[in-house]
């Protein structure tokens, strides 16, 4: 299964991904950047993740094998 990643250099901490899919994304208070929650069910939240990826203004969310 692919891994979901956030490019921390690209992320501007806008919170859009957390808004679109709070089950998977959260803003780290100290870094101000988005993170993928540990243990998040990617399959269950597939559609919301795709929306978050599409709507991320800096295209910081990506998948990796
Ligand atoms: S939508 Fe993109 S830029 Fe905004 S917090 Fe999420 S990963 Fe960062």
Describe the SSE topology.
Blueprint: E1 3-6, H1 16-20, E2 25-27, E3 34-36, H2 46-55, E4 61-64
Antiparallel strand pairs: 1-4, 2-3
The protein binds iron/sulfur cluster.
Quick structural summary:
23% of the residues lie in helices and 22% in strands. The protein contains two helices and four strands; from the N terminus they run E-H-E-E-H-E.
The DSSP helix count reads 2
Derived structural class: alpha+beta
What's the rounded overall pLDDT mean?
96
Quick one: biggest sheet? 2 strands, antiparallel
In spatial order, strands of the major sheet run 1-4
Assign the CATH class: Alpha Beta
Give the count of structural domains.
Answer: 1
Give the amount of beta strand, in percent.
Answer: 15-25%
Instruction: Could you tell me the CATH topology label.
Output: Alpha-Beta Plaits
Q: Work out the number of β strands.
A: 4
Can you tell me the CATH architecture? 2-Layer Sandwich
End-to-end span in angstroms? 7 Å
Radius of gyration based on Cα positions:
10 Å
Using the alpha-carbon principal axes, give the shape. Answer: globular
Instruction: Say what oligomer this is.
Output: single chain
Give the cofactors and ligands: iron/sulfur cluster
